[in-house]
């Protein structure tokens, strides 16, 4: 949807012209899945699909919001001085939570807004639409309220909002990559220390193709929290058993070190969660080296290896995601594929040569529908910068 069309819609709904337009990207994690809360290294990119906000400031404490993605819900409202979680407000709890955490941190929120949101990210597909909205709201508040927050602080604040206000025990990767994204670069982030570097993601003739399985992700919240608990259990046991040096997180262990003490993990499921996290961290480091060397073939093989681990060790894949990756591996022009996001449905990504993108999409669509009865959706993503005012 064009920005002018969004501005026209804003004026139609609110009766006055808007003041500004902001855009917040979604994110695709190239590799390093389910290790952001284990102190590991992740390698996400911000993409050119995301969330727009068209707005104007108000003179009172009222915030009016409408999303064109949920237009039937109409304009919903809340008061800045009376914020509390409200399930009836649905998606509005994401921007509302950010403003609540700002208040808890001692920042002033002296006036409200009229706001119109529109996202071209597929809902519930694992491309971080919630984090996109959170960082969008924080960036708007930062500019309009003159808070002086840097990108890292915004990411931490938005993570706290999702954890404490919306009750999802997520790591910081999504918010960080959306706030700190850089065009044509991946963000290599150490989730333990928040040290990061921008890694050139020079893909040449290859494209990131996002494949939305359209499999609903019903188990994700409960299973996500269970995986975190299992990882915490593994770390506690391994920390006690490993005496060569102090380890500060699960991913502080190398794969070789892990094998030397893994017998203390008597639970098969806890062992498998730890195995995935520690080896996935190693894959991410090696993937960064492959990108720096321009070796996309090696990078693609790390993607395949990552998916196999997520499916067999972390057990967060599903038959639909596994099928997309299996089909991808046999197709000309495809270097790698894997699930991305929390799992149990949602999206896979593939690294596909530009001359084969059309045939790739047709082949996957036909074979996927034949085996699952579901229609896959495809998006060719470009690596974009982070959240910012666009007009």
From TrEMBL:
It holds the Pfam family GalKase_gal_bdg. Mg(2+) binds at residues 130, 162. The keyword Transcription regulation does not apply. Signal peptide: none annotated. Gene3D superfamilies: 3.30.230.10, GHMP kinase, C-terminal domain. ATP binds at residues 67, 124-130. Transmembrane segments: none annotated. Residues 9-57 form the Galactokinase N-terminal domain. Belongs to the GHMP kinase family. GalK subfamily. This is Galactokinase.
